[in-house]
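Allow me, if you will, to draw on your knowledge of protein folds for a short while. The matter concerns a single protein, recorded as an amino acid sequence and a row of backbone structure tokens. Could you please explain, in whatever detail you think fit, how the structure tokens follow from the sequence? I remain grateful for any guidance, and I place the record below:

…
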Amino acid sequence: MFLIIGLTKKPVKFTMYLKMAKSAKFSMLLVAFGYPQKVTFAIYNVNANNWQSLTADTVAAAWDPTSNNRIAYIKNGTGTSRLNLLTLNDQKSKEALRLSQKDLDLDWVIKDVIYFKERPSRQIPSSVWSYNLTAKTIKTLIKEEAGLMVKWSPTGNTGIKWAGALTVIDKNNAPLSAINLQTIPTKCAYDSLRIYCAAPTEQANISNTIFPDEYMKKSARFIDDIYMIPALNLGQQPELLNIKILDGASAATRVEAEHLEVTENKIIFLNRYDKNLYTLEL
């Protein structure tokens, strides 16, 4: 059972959560458990209240953005990463592509396009590739940038990118507008007109860490503020305005937020300090 709690209410433990992704019709959830020891993936059917596990060697997975019935997942082979497509109603899995790179993650936000991304590190430049399922073509979208992370908008037309600074890009990696915050895309979320980001209260402390490496390893810890960023004028403003809507220093609960999502006038996020899900009313 998933328990969503307010910032001022007594927390309820949700200790195994890593991240969740909703299916196209919001009736199913793709859930990753067990980070960092051994990540496992499962599908939760909200209506039927049951679980279905993905194959044990799955290292990344994403919903078909147009369907409740198909998932793309990566499993590691001998020296390769293998992209598979799974249809849920008949449990048939088909290999779509093999890649020489290992330890890849993936996003699927546009109907026929899957994005492969290397794990981010400030010390080792990484890349993002796009793969067209229909044309069966792969191309480099972003090449060898340090600390690279991208979170795509629900339409896939824009993305929030971190590579030493936070920017909004278009689907071809052209910069649109800067966001004057030191934070990473997994701490941000879109709605139709705005972007919301959690960012460390002490922004200057970021320069004293190997970021995002130490943050992702949890060797660097912060207290976060949460900001609302109007996004109507992407590409017209060099830098977007950010408006603080949660002051981490004065909040009743210590917050280090990640995996933000916006739904029904609420921000939902995982608090790294107590491993609980919280909501923030907008």
